[in-house]
Amino acid sequence: MEKGNFERAWQEAFHEAEVSPSASVWTNVELTLEKEAGGKMKQRLLFYKLLAAASLVFAMGIAGVYYISFQDDRAPIADNSVKAGSTGEASSNSSVEEVQDIHADEHASANTLQSESKVRMESEASMYSQADHSTVGNSRNEQLARVEKNNSTSKSNDNNLLLAEVDHTPTQVLPGRDNTPERYTVQLNERPLPALAEVSQPTLVFESPYSEPDPGMVLLAKLADEEKKYAEEGKKKSNDNLWTSVGFGAGSFNPNASFTTSGQRLASNSLSNQVNTSPSAGSSYTLGMLVGGRVSERFVIQSGLNYLTQNAYYTSTVVSMGTLMSASLNDFSDAQTLSYASTPYGVSSNLQFISLPVQVGYLILDKDFAIQLNSGLSTDFFLNNTLTPDMAGISKYSQSAGSDSPFRSVNFSGLAGTEFSYRFNDHYRIAINPGMRYSLNSIYKSDTNTQINPITFDVSLRFGYIFR
Amino acid sequence: MMQNGRYIGYMLNEQELIEGCRKGSRASQRALYDHYCKKMMVVCLRYSKSNAEAEDILQEGFVKVFQGLDGFRQDAKLETWMTRIMVNTALNHHRKKLYLYPMVDVEKTDLPDGEIGISTLQFNELLAMVQSLPQGCQLVFNLFAIEGYSHKEIADMLGISEGTSKSQYARARVLLQEKLRKESSHYKIYGEGKF
């Protein structure tokens, strides 16, 4: 069907036509947009909350894993050391008894197969209790047990048993037996027992009857290595006693307030600073430096200086009267009479503070990659609040601290957060800190009848220098 | 610019308004709205049966305009783009209840012998005629005669067959011609003084 004059006539008839919609349409459009803007900010807020929560869970998870592995690592060391009798007196006694048994058996029946078998049995019992799987290799006469004299320890006359060396290299090959690579040499310190007087510094060679490496002994060896590492790290850590960092943070800012009509006398032809609004969450930015120090193995304390700015967006329906009106109404103390309702307009609020945080941190992981839980208090000095209207014809309004200011000059905020940091060399460390800041008092003075306790969720990036 | 408590946005050009809206400036959004709301209201009225319904569509359409301005590439005129959004919003509005409209092929359409001119009629009367059409006819008439879509495009948009679109349009045209003929006879009898 071709378009002809009929269609063209209708097009022309409607082309320049105009009909005014009712005023409520714009109000509804604006309300919808406000809601959506609020929704976006809520989403952003939720993101930061989730990030903070996730970081906390992550930190706790790491701490848990670290704790469990630490406990697991410690337990076998303690068991083995007790069984081996390297330190404790009681354990040393029990081990000495076992060794005495071995020596006695060896001495009493040195050349007999029975004694050999007995030694083996005794030794097996002893070594099973020490390291799960070991056995006496052979009798002294068959030169399967080697006795060595150690001059350095021969002077020692105490009763300590020094189970010391775990030798993974084969020292002797048993004829007629499977030549397993795992063979352990246990050196016993000389002990002046009468039966063993002539035998000083005996060294017994045990051969594992299993072709697999002895897991108990391997574990012992690994643990010894770990111990060394921890000891070295401990030395390293103690060097990180003082550091400084600079950083920048951004996040969401929730005014956490319900606004009431102003009780303030306002500057002429300007915005009211408290207006009937639909407040929405905004953004927050920090810039500053911190100095930190270690106060114990796990605890650090840090403080510094931050510049803090918090932005929020409101919709206002109130503006103040003009100069003329203010002048003629000087006697009125109630500022509400100096303002009048207007069509809704947007207002950007920008709060600025200088912040002095003091935080205590607990290091749950203290390696090159470190995790630290922080908590503390911040003293915030109010600098300025600037209200910028989103509508021409209304001037910007700024208010500083002071006796006639509605804002408290000094505020206190609680801080909590997690720091994930990475030390990439001896002097430099980079860190990311998700955290929360909650104002402990209203930033408005009590006589303003307004309660605003802002909550901020932010993530900051810090670059630190470690003094050595 | 503030004048007697009302914002006048015409001091800014269209590009500045678009940029302002993209940044979320409420003042720019208001100015853009003020500039186009009357024309867009007419578009919405053509697809509606009442002012209230048209205002609902207008409101929803403007929210979509502000949300979608980031994606406006300026290949077309802003007004054309906004009109398309209003039309789509109106169609979505109707699509939900489209199954209620009797949109069947009309077997035989008696097209009027001669066309009656509409130039003598005022906009309000023409709008009332369009609004009085059955819903399906109203949609197809608007899309074909005023928006300029083809029947194939209309069929795709409404989820009907091309034949249905054609027959609906033919029916709309017959109904409008009858209405115009009546109005025309009023003219002949009473003259323009009636209006």
Task: Tell me the span between the first and last alpha carbons of chain B.
Answer: 39 Å
Oligomer state equals: heterodimer
| Radius of gyration over C-alpha positions of chain B, nearest whole angstrom | 19 Å
Distance between the termini of chain A: 88 Å
The poorly predicted ranges of chain A are 77-106, 108-113, 123-188, 260-277, 321-339
| Element-level helix/strand string of chain A | HHHHHEEHEEEHEEEEEE
CATH homologous superfamily of the largest domain in chain B - what is it?
RNA polymerase sigma factor, region 2, helix turn helix motif
Count up the domains of chain B. Answer: 2
Name the biggest interface: A-B, 37 and 46 residues
Could you tell me the number of beta strands of chain A?
A: 11
Rg of chain A, nearest Å: 40 Å
Question: What is the spatial order of strands in the main beta sheet of chain B?
Answer: 1-2
Describe this structure in words.
The complex is a heterodimer of chains A (468) and B (195). Chain A is of the alpha+beta class. Chain A has two domains: 40-66 and 237-326 and 338-467, Beta Barrel (Porin); 85-227, no CATH class. Chain A contains seven helices and eleven strands. Chain A has helices spanning 5-15, 23-84, 89-108, 113-131, 151-154, 215-237, 323-328; strands at residues 183-187, 203-207, 242-254, 280-294, 299-320, 339-366, 369-389, 397-400, 410-423, 428-439, 455-467. In chain A, the strands form two sheets. Chain A has an eight-stranded antiparallel β-barrel. In chain A, strands 1-2 form a two-stranded antiparallel sheet. In chain A, helix 2 (23-84) crosses helix 3. Mean pLDDT of chain A is 68; it is low at 77-106, 108-113, 123-188, 260-277 and 321-339. Chain B is an all-alpha fold. Chain B folds into two domains: 2-96, RNA polymerase sigma factor, region 2, helix turn helix motif (Rna Polymerase Sigma Factor, Chain: A); 100-194, Winged helix-like DNA-binding domain superfamily/Winged helix DNA-binding domain (Arc Repressor Mutant, subunit A). Helices cover 64% and strands 2% of the residues of chain B. Chain B contains eight helices and two strands; from the N terminus they run ββαααααααα. Chain B has helices at residues 14-22, 26-46, 51-68, 78-95, 123-132, 135-146, 151-158, 162-190, and strands at residues 2-3, 6-7. Chain B has a two-stranded antiparallel sheet. In chain B, helix 2 packs across helix 3, helix 3 crosses helix 4 and helix 7 crosses helix 8. Chain B starts with a strand and ends in a 5-residue tail after the last helix. Mean pLDDT of chain B is 81; it is low at 1-10 and 190-195. The interface between A and B is large, with 37 and 46 residues.
